[in-house]
């Protein structure tokens, strides 16, 4: 299998909208409830913790599995980094949802775990800290994304992984543009500390 086919398969797999599919199992359409997002946060808010956790795991797997196997299949940092970026693009701009999708955080976490377990551990701790202090999932996600490429640079000293993490952070920023506006206007929904 050459790189182009692997990237195409990665995009198609990452495009699977697990949040939407699981909401359909409950007889609901997650796009029409809560924030309208198909990600784990909105699924948790609308359908409960178990459903939200399942979506989190499935969305993270879309990033982890292709990136992890790319490491053993290609053994080329550039190729691995391209797979990582495409996985997040697939989730955020799904072919099955007319190139719309989630905000990329869970899939990016899966990618980060595959690229650098140490970096992922640091970012998870940072995310938890910001979330518990602020109560905002979006703020924790935005700040964690902005920090991820800096941390992976110092931990792995790998320019390809650093660039991949930076590009992914830009995608996450773009997908959170409405959240950023609500944070600035103090109208963002708090997940904690209501």
UniProtKB/TrEMBL annotation:
EC main group: transferase
Keywords linked to the UniProt accession: Acyltransferase, Cell membrane, Lipid biosynthesis, Lipid metabolism, Membrane, Phospholipid biosynthesis, Phospholipid metabolism, Transferase, Transmembrane, Transmembrane helix
Swiss-Prot/TrEMBL catalytic activity: an acyl phosphate + sn-glycerol 3-phosphate = a 1-acyl-sn-glycero-3-phosphate + phosphate
Pathway membership, UniProt: Lipid metabolism; phospholipid metabolism
Localization of this protein: Cell membrane
EC number(s) from the headed UniProt entry: 2.3.1.275
Name of this chain's protein: Glycerol-3-phosphate acyltransferase
Organism the protein comes from: Venenivibrio stagnispumantis
Gene: plsY
